[in-house]
Amino acid sequence: MAVEQQDWAQVVAAATRAPSIHNTQPWRFRATADRLDVFFDPGRALPVLDPTARQQVISCGIAVEFAVVALAAQGKAAEVDLLPDPGDPDHLAVLRVTGAAATGADDAALATAIERRHTVRAPFLPRAVPQELIDRIQVEAGRFGTWVKPITREEEEVATVFLLSRAEEIEQSDPAYLAELESWMRTEPGAVDGVPVEAVPSDDPQARPSNWLIRDFVVGSRERADFLPGQDPDAPPPEVERPAVVLLGTDEDDRDDWLMAGRALARALLIVTVDGVAASPLTQALDWPSTRSRLQSRLSLVGHPQMLLRMGYPPDLPDGAVSGRRPVAEVLDFG
Fold it and tell me: Does the global pTM surpass 0.85?
């Protein structure tokens, strides 16, 4: 089934709405009549924060699944082949259009959610995320060979919060990390990549009324204060607002698993967006091998943690708080 160039452009526009670490958008696309090839772009790498490209490959997996959703909304069925070229590890996926497919209400809702979804770093409203929604994303994750573990037990929450704080401390003390972070901050209006300062809460994340420490994107421009570590694992958690937090993981830990984690994460993000729930990553403890392995041990995980996700009902966002995207013409080739 041939796909017109304008339809591929719409699909890639949807794919590029995928979230990516520091909004690096580390992907390239090539479209022919009936297939879309997805490539990792090493020129947009994060050698300090993500030296193995694990988090960026996960981001590309999200883009792959957003493209599948966009094709379904156009009435097209697609098969996905991951890592199709053993000689080129940056050739991440091929989407082959196999024919027409009936478009249902769920397909349309998920496709609409692609445009509505955005990362919310502000504190969430004091409203619980329904357990039914958590259950649904657990089931959806299983379709991709991944798992979702809600962080609900007190001892697991305390350990995770502590390791998040420890990882943030490591990052804030690393000049190379701070320089890399600063290079992806954007102050100019209409920036097409990076993290706009308007999307970052201006208050110190350590002082916000939450038990979960978000990444401090402007630590390099804020007057340095003594770091306040997270709660000791043996101490009771403070009485603060708590969002729903889930950990997504895989049994193994290679590029294929990272891509599947990204695809599962894409579905989870769209499903919760349809229900009015927003999300933001809490990846600091997964950035560093030491804290990632400690998290794996402390939570007795049989598998590898790939994404820690904070979810809740968002407040109203100010104008300009949504990160920009590179033009489709910049990332899509026809060949």
Answer: yes
